[in-house]
Amino acid sequence: MSSRIPPILRPEHPTPRPLAGLVQEFGLEYRGDLDGVEVTGVTLSTNDLHPGDLFVGVPGSKAHGASFATAAAEGGAVAIVTDEVGAELAADSGLPIVLVPSPRAALGEIAAWVYRTDDTPPLLFGVTGTNGKTSTSYLLEAVLRQLGLVTGLSTTAERHIGELSVVSLLTTPEASEMHALLARMREAGVRAVAVEVSAQALSRHRVDGLVFDVAGFTNLSHDHLDDYADMETYFQAKLPLFDPEHARRGVVCLDTAYGRRVVDASRIPVTTIATIGHASADDVASAEWTVEVLDETAGYTEFKLTGPDGRELVTREPLIGWHMAANAALAIVMLVEAGFELEAIGAALDADGGIRAYLPGRTERVSGERGPSVYVDFGHSPDAFENTLAAVRKFTTGRTIMVFGADGDRDATKRHDMGRVAAEGSDILVITDHHPRFEDPVSIRKTLLEGAALAEHQPEIHEVSPPEQAIRVAVGLAREGDSILWAGPGHQDYRDIRGVRTPYSAREEARAALREAGWA
Ligand SMILES: CC(=O)N[C@H]1[C@@H](OP(=O)(O)OP(=O)(O)OC[C@H]2O[C@@H](n3ccc(=O)[nH]c3=O)[C@H](O)[C@@H]2O)O[C@H](CO)[C@@H](O)[C@@H]1O[C@H](C)C(=O)N[C@@H](C)C(=O)N[C@H](CCC(=O)O)C(=O)O
Ligand SMILES: Nc1ncnc2c1ncn2[C@@H]1O[C@H](COP(=O)(O)OP(=O)(O)OP(=O)(O)O)[C@@H](O)[C@H]1O
């Protein structure tokens, strides 16, 4: 990967802690001399090593982290934490070695100890599900800010510490980064944090050592079957967020049938929410909260949230689609579960004319007053395509044009459905490339085209590579009144081509294509 790897934020003024204290507190075995060893940080990667760090050697898919122990020592690491296999690999590093049975499983608690994130933690919100995690997290942050709090955010798109913003690498950072981020947030006076929690994060202990005040579940649909054997395994991977080790309370959206199953499996108190017209009639009837879309325009969606005891809130958000109303309502109910009064939330939102949120690359309109409407979106699953296409179509007087490609080296089993759903919902389809990674982009497009051919409705289909060209073809075909939905790249500022993060922004490309076509 190139140097465009985003920075990892750490506390600016870490307080050193004696390593002997860690060993004593957790009753850990060690080799070497711990006398005078002071720890100021923790990492599992030599690419993010600071002098004074504990280097945690985790067994990875390509290498055992402990095989980089000598490099870690040269970089200023003060000790190694690893397993028995890693201890052998790290023996020549000259550093003391602390032994744990599973370094990845230990990382969260160790990072919490190093950065003292257990001391006066902020209010913590965790959001999981297939689609809508980033959006719900941004919406939580927006409402918290409108309530006057200094906020933090951790999502696929960005990490925020108050007004400071950096782009993200992983959706949910490794536990060492997560706790460093929280420590930095504490320095900045952050009082509430919204964290997007991926299934991979739960499977890989990335949120260990954190207890969310409120966990939220958006929905579950086909994705990530490269990481999980089947939908059931993927579903099961989400459940630990609803255990007492990870959250105190939960809010579960019943819009997909998996929601009810989360409620049944949850080991914490949960409340439920369902979207009228989208969840099943039974789930709408049994949900404690319901959300109903009242008005939709190209500029905003207005909705009503109704809760127990006839409590109600009507507000709007500058986002399109019923699914965004579902995300916003989930965020608001999570705040209520955290102890905020619904009336206070309503008053704060009313004062501002609704929720003030900007979601980078989530059905983001990049076009101007004239010409076709162009939206850049991060959707990369059949369900996301269906919802965003429906939302865009609603405000399109002309034709709906969709541009998309699929991720290489990621769940290939969803590609047929992506092609089919995209074809069903569009009048013109431009199939192109996304992140090919190490796959052949021609063969990815071929699978998408096969999927598109399965659709009952057949749009006009074009195959265009690379995406810079594809968006220009789409803009060239578009007329006033048409809409273009470019799904996949969202906020991202690179394409991963054979492991190299090549600079590239779909939002910039789309704007350039519009300018070149004279629509600026
Ligand atoms: C499958 C997966 O999660 N892999 C993660 C894993 O990589 P790995 O096991 O291959 O690590 P490895 O390369 O064998 O290296 C082993 C260890 O040696 C260390 N190392 C390695 C090389 C070196 O020079 N120095 C060094 O210290 C590594 O940091 C690592 O700790 O540990 C790495 C270090 O933290 C992660 O960066 C990497 O995430 C990769 C980039 C990834 O793509 N993960 C995806 C699947 C992911 O987690 N996605 C989810 C969800 C996204 C969504 O919702 O769409 C996410 O939360 O982002
Ligand atoms: N509640 C929802 N239901 C269905 N689709 C949604 C929902 N919310 C958002 N989407 C669609 O999914 C796309 C991704 O949204 P978002 O980034 O919020 O999800 P995510 O869960 O964070 O995704 P990822 O796991 O890829 O980071 C959006 O651009 C939109 O197309």
TrEMBL record:
The GO molecular function terms of this record are: ligase activity
Top-level taxonomic group:
Bacteria
Alphabetically ordered keywords of this record? ATP-binding, Cell cycle, Cell division, Cell shape, Cell wall biogenesis/degradation, Cytoplasm, Ligase, Magnesium, Nucleotide-binding, Peptidoglycan synthesis
Where is the protein localized? Answer: Cytoplasm
Class of this enzyme: ligase
Q: Domain Mur ligase C-terminal, which positions?
A: 361-489
Recorded family membership: Belongs to the MurCDEF family. MurE subfamily.
Q: Which PANTHER family match?
A: MUR LIGASE FAMILY MEMBER, UDP-N-ACETYLMURAMOYL-L-ALANYL-D-GLUTAMATE--2,6-DIAMINOPIMELATE LIGASE MURE HOMOLOG, CHLOROPLASTIC
Q: What is this protein called?
A: UDP-N-acetylmuramyl-tripeptide synthetase
Organism annotation:
Homoserinibacter gongjuensis
